[in-house]
């Protein structure tokens, strides 16, 4: 079907009333002229056909914009604030209308944005604008662009946090100078000063959760990255570079020596995980939990991880999980690290 409109009863401040078509889906690939009109502010909000004043309509206003070649490709906004579930349902319905009759569905790359910013954002590339903002070269001469710039700051921060999330986990679990050198060389984004802030947030979160070893590792990696920026990576990662490691926390009996190898779990007798712990592992893998059809949001995952850590019994906490670089990490350490990363990414 592509672009889609629906007639709504309306009234404007000048006394005009009647019904008018309200665009709910704009397919810029099928009808570039509609995308241009959306960018000119004709659709958000709808305008009185008699005088051009803002029209108050009887239905719930939302708009899905498909912009081929832009990032993200899909923008969705709703005029009336709704709870996340209702907003998701409306966005899914709009996507169904867009893809109806299409041989190849579109819409894998999309984002929910403020309804009032849809016009100024309709033909802009968010990633290019975020790059310009980070380089202090974004120009906002109009009030609309200034509001967009304010929103764009949050988008750029979230984009950076997501881009560094997995590589930070890899950095924290590196167990030799060689591994650290490879990770930093392959991911120059780690030398960005904003990573210092993320690692600081992770260290604070780990301390609050009673994981001082994890906090120490985060701060040690932060200091190492600072040295790499100042001295160069090769100099900072000389042969004497200490590499604090994350190990699975095996049960300790008296003063037994710590094994050079992380303890291996005994799966001879399969145990059933605490429900919240099992659900958290499923959610961490990106799968829906329980009767949900979609993965948890970031906030929901943080809440589930917090509950799982609180309810996790000692025999589960010490289970070794094979993670990045093939390293065995204690289940509690793994979930704490994930939670610390999520908390760090959520900080303003």
Largest sheet: 6 strands, mixed
**Which structural class do the helices and strands define?**
alpha/beta
Computed CA radius of gyration, to the nearest angstrom: 25 Å
Q: Per DSSP, what share of the residues sits in E-state strands of 2 or more residues?
A: 5-15%
N-to-C terminal Cα separation, in Å? Answer: 40 Å
SSE pattern, N- to C-terminal: EEHEEEHEHHHHHHHHHHEEH
Q: Residue-averaged pLDDT, rounded? A: 81
Helix content percent band: 40-55%
Side by side, the strands of the main sheet go 3-1-2-4-5-6
The total strand number stands at 8
Quaternary structure state of the chains depicted: single chain
In DSSP terms, counting alpha (H) and pi (I) runs of 4 or more, how many helices? 13
Shape: elongated
List segments where confidence is low: pLDDT < 50 over at least 5 consecutive residues: 243-271
Number of domains: 2
């Amino acid at each position: 079907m592509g672009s889609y409109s629906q007639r709504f009863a309306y009234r404007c401040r000048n006394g005009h009333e009647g019904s008018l078509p309200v665009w709910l889906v704009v397919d810029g690939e099928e009808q570039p002229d509609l995308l241009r009109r959306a960018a000119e502010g004709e659709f958000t909000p709808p305008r009185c056909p008699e005088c051009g004043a803002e029209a108050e309509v009887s239905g719930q206003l939302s708009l899905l914009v498909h912009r081929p070649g832009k990032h993200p490709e899909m923008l969705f906004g709703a005029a009336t604030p709704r709870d996340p579930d209702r907003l998701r349902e409306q966005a899914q319905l709009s996507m169904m209308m867009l893809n109806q009759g299409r041989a190849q569905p579109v819409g894998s790359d999309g984002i929910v944005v403020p309804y009032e910013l849809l016009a100024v954002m309709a033909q802009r590339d968010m990633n290019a604008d975020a790059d310009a903002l980070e380089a202090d070269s974004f120009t906002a001469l109009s009030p609309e662009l200034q509001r967009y710039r304010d929103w764009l700051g949050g988008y750029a921060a979230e984009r950076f946090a997501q881009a560094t999330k997995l590589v930070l986990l890899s950095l924290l679990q590196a167990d030799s100078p060689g591994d650290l050198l490879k990770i930093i060389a392959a991911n120059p984004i780690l030398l960005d000063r904003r990573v210092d802030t993320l690692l600081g947030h992770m260290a604070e979160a780990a301390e609050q959760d009673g994981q001082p070893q994890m906090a120490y590792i985060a701060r040690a990696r932060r200091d190492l990255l600072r040295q790499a920026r100042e001295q160069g990576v090769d100099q900072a990662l000389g042969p004497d570079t200490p590499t604090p490691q994350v190990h699975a926390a095996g049960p300790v009996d008296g003063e037994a020596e710590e094994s050079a190898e992380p303890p291996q779990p005994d799966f001879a007798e399969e145990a059933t995980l605490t429900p919240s712990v099992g659900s958290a592992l499923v959610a961490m893998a990106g799968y829906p939990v329980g009767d949900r059809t979609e993965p948890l949001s970031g906030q929901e995952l943080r809440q589930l991880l917090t509950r799982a850590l609180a309810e996790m019994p000692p025999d589960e906490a010490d289970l070794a999980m094979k993670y990045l670089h093939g390293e065995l990490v204690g289940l509690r350490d793994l979930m704490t690290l994930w939670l610390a990363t999520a908390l760090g990414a959520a900080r303003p």
